[in-house]
Amino acid sequence: MASNHKPSAARPVSRGGLGLAGRPLSGIRPPSGNIRVATGMPPGTARPGSRGGAIGAGGVLSSQIKVADRPVTQQGLSGMKTGIKGPQRQILDKSYYLGLLRSKISELASEINKLQKEIEMYNQENSVYLSYEKRAETLAVEIKEFQGQLADYNMLVDKLNTNTEMEEVMNDYNMLKAQNDRETQSMDIIFTERQAKEKQIRSVEEETEQEKQAADGIIKNMSPEKQVKYLEMKTTNEKLLQELDTLQQQLDLLSMKKESLEAEIAHSQVKQEAVLLYEKLDELESHRDQMTAEDKSMGSPTEERERLLKQVKEDNQEIASMERQLTDIKEKIHQFNEEIRLLNMDLEEHQGEMNQKYKELKKREENMDSFIETFEETKNQELERKALLEASIVALLEHGSRNINRMKQISSITNQELKIMQDDLNFKSTEMQKSQSTARNLISDSQRLQLDLQKMELLESKMIEEQHSLKNKIKQMITDLETFNDLPALKSSGEEKKKKLHQERTVLSNRRNAFKKIMEKLNIEYETLRSELQENETHSQSFSTNPTRIFSLLGWNGRLLSAGAGSSLVRHTAP
Q1: What is the Cα gyration radius of the chain?
Q2: What's the whole-number mean pLDDT along residues 5-12?
Q3: How close are the terminal C-alpha atoms of the chain, in Å?
Q4: Which residues does 421 contact at the CB level (< 8 Å), separation at least 6?
């Protein structure tokens, strides 16, 4: 293998075996970046002037020779690819590789130490992270507080720059304070309601637990058969609940699909036209089915005639029976009315005073019943009226006491205080006017919003109606699609109908041909009989003397001929 891969050494010297002293050989390849040590023979033992030997002691060994890299063949080691310049180690023995391993081990140890230091640093950072997080939370709270203070200071600076008075600031303060108080009260109410709801939930949970325990006790006390039956019913209930969930999911999916289809239909003119065509097709199909059902229900004309006659007879019998019952009832009513009239006359004659007293007592009883029925309502109305009167009396007393206190205070009020109170009164009157204007605006806005709400309710009702109509249409379309998707069945039914019609056509054509033959035969017989009658003198004389008899005979003849035609028709159509 050494002979197959020869190293690309420098060009050999001339025949004299001498090379140039200071000038490099012209046949040397440019450096390739790696050096392969020749291991085929020891250094210095090669023949001078050959490729393995050295060319001069001072020129070639001192120069930087770079041979092409290739695998070493004798020891099975690959060449070292290093980028160090100058002469290198030519024999790679055990000490060389041990040195390499030591250097790599030292590098790995230094890298491991570095990674351990980084791990320790990360652990320290993780341990300090919680303290940093707490500190960040406290700092965030402080930042929020400082932001609030800054907003207050900015607002104060704005008020000072706009030359607002202290009274406006105080009014704003009072308004904000009242708003905060209201919000705190609402928060307290919500908190109390939440506590009450939580208590109710806990009580309900306790009740459910008690009920479960009671149910478990009842189940334990049951007989084994009942327990088995209970378990079966429980499993069926669970299965039904699972089926209900799946059906509900399917319903949700179908409703979503329906909504998407409705949206697609609303946005597409072609689909709307297709829906109209499907509706027309459904109407035509229903009309066709109705006509086919009527055609199937109808029998032959004789059967229909008999059925109608039978129905008319039954209706006439029912009408006659009802009329008889009606006359009987009228007679009975007349008799009862006569009896009632006679009884009233007897009562009026014999019990005039008693009847009057009875009527008075009855009227009083009705009045008492009405009073008892309306007692609760009247009582509540009177109690409400009493409460309103008491509230008005209390309000009047408070107003009177306030007026008395004001009169006492007015007597001790100075001019300056009176001026301040007048200013307060003017401010409050302006505020009241503003609030009245805002109230009027709010009333107008509420009326406008009420109108908008009514319009929205109307639109919602219309949308619901349209949704129901679209649901019905979708159901009809689904049924139509199911029927029309089965094209092979429709084709088979059409083919069967076509075959039946062809069969009927052939039967009718055969019958027509048979009738034609019968008519031709009868015409021939008629002509022969007529000719015979004309040739016979006795028949002609009898015809001239008694034509009525001849016509009667002709009628009988025609009946006989028709009977013969029917029998021949039967003979022809029987096969």
Answers
A1: 62
A2: 42
A3: 109
A4: 413
